[in-house]
Amino acid sequence: MEFEDTTLLEQNKPEHPHALRHLAFHDVLTLDSTQNTLTWWPDHKIIPLNEAQKRFLSCLLLRITSKHQIIATVWNESYPSISDNNYHQLLFQSRALFKRFGLPDGLLITLPYHGVRLNEEKLIAFTQRFS
After folding, report:
1. Secondary structure E strands in 26-87
2. pTM, entire model
3. Which residues, 6 or more positions from 17, have their beta carbon under 8 angstroms from its beta carbon?
4. Structural domain for 107, as ranges
């Protein structure tokens, strides 16, 4: 995965991945943490995100794929009391959000017994198609 030069940090060394202001995957996706939005550039769609979705997508854009690391990042201080069900519900809601906004199926890939990752191959295909 290649991040654009425009990726900005709120601080020099953020304690949490969601402390990043903008994360981008080529010219396809941009996560704006200050506005809680995900921009899908091929169709110029701006997708509003809740706090958990924003933190979840920050993890994926930073290649954090472990379910346990994602849970610790998304739910922060309360993560010890978070169950796998909360994680699976967030994953389900994120897929539903992508579908509702017309993004292609298969952007999130479940990694059995590990977690989830972005389908970088599919995203790169979109990059090549629209560049």
Report:
1. 29-32, 37-40, 45-48
2. 0.82
3. 55, 58, 59, 62, 64, 73
4. 17-129
